[in-house]
């Protein structure tokens, strides 16, 4: 165990305490619910966007609460869904009278609890719409694309939907943008080591040193291929090919690429993956016009990375380029 | 080995290739020297700031070449100094007629090669001044403070000196600012696992799982204490106390805190350290008015973190708040 933690039972609450001490001008807790964090200031006049899920993925989810991004988040325990009550508290504090979009990854617990929260919100007179992020191309075949898991691509969905909400779009319009962004993206990942849960002190799964698992989920869900670790170029080939075969953008497409580190993988290695992705996408007739490279969605100290490709058009490019600001993300 | 790399002998050059492919509008190579990278655009009218050192620390060093930051960098092999020729190339491409500040960490190889480069630059008619970053409080006692190593605090030195250069300050003035910032800061770190060199495939030092080393250097240099891993609060206490006992700011001081991850430590854990630092500094009568929390200076996949405290006055606060922009750092 190589963790700088205190009592594991207090891990999430202490992390939140640290975040709120550090960023009191930007983030506040929702009334009466310490596990619901919302953007500082009034939500009036904007569609709210509430996200959430288990802890352990910073900057996801809390890191994307801010200007031009999400308006609130419900914070679960490590790798565990937040409760419907926590989601409801984030919803009420995010509602500015124009309704609230629920935008989160396609995981069973989250789907159930956001569903319950939507019912509770309706009792409170708050309209919600739900859009699931399901960008992990290797988690299910194309004919079951709507069962795929949500991974790092959710950051690009937040960016697009958040920019739409910020400029004053209506709830159906913000939801349409989120759906469009998600339909235009695919992600593929690779894991080289497991994450270790603070409370358990043990790996979430076994992956021998020197092996890799392509398509592994951010909680250690099974991938599509396990075998000896290959070179950065070979791994990038596997990921980019899986993405592009499924996404099949038109020749000459402009795309955005997100190369995301899962936690322990150095930034240097992410640039090796970017380098190969750049070459491969050019060979396939796509042009990278926007990119994020760094740790955007992690899995505690898991070694590994993911690549996301988002096909851009004028509308999505404008939303990606819009200003955004949170303690964890600025552009 | 859990590295996404190709041929280890090409590691640094391929990383640079990826960075230049990703950010061609912001970074370019100096004429004839692929290991010297400078900010895009003309250096005319500004004091240049050239830094450099071994690779494996991204965003340090290359990540701080940009607007309001450094103007050029010489890129060594992993954990190895760049050559005087590489430094000279960065110097020539960074010289806008007002001279060049050499601002880098206090390591033997770097001191030697930047010294040689300064002589070569003089032959070329370029004036240079050198300021060494030596913020690692645990690397030598107070009476030998100028022999201390340079670690994450160099990022704050870049920020202050870079802002001074950007607004048009003279070389002696930019050097004065750098010296002042460095004199006003201390850093203390902890390592929980070693980094692994790509070429060797082996740890740079042994640190048994479950042990920690307080004061460890970013290349694995010996620290001040090795023992069983303690809680996040206990570790933060050790680091903050070492910093504050040495720095001894006036009661009521306003300070900036940088909580830096060394590579594999999750952002969640950095916020636990921030939380405790916030409590301790308040107890000691200092007020945190600025903060950076994240991975600013790493050591490949080393698990661990450092804390830096910088005492602010009006001049340094203004320089910290000035706009800055590189592919790796924006504010």
From TrEMBL, chains A, B:
Molecular function as annotated in GO: kinase activity
Swiss-Prot/TrEMBL keywords: Kinase, Transferase
Transmembrane intervals: none
InterPro entries, per the entry: DhaK_dom, Dihydroxyacetone_Kinase
Domain DhaK: 7-329
Protein name per UniProt: Dihydroxyacetone kinase subunit DhaK
Organism per entry: Jatrophihabitans lederbergiae
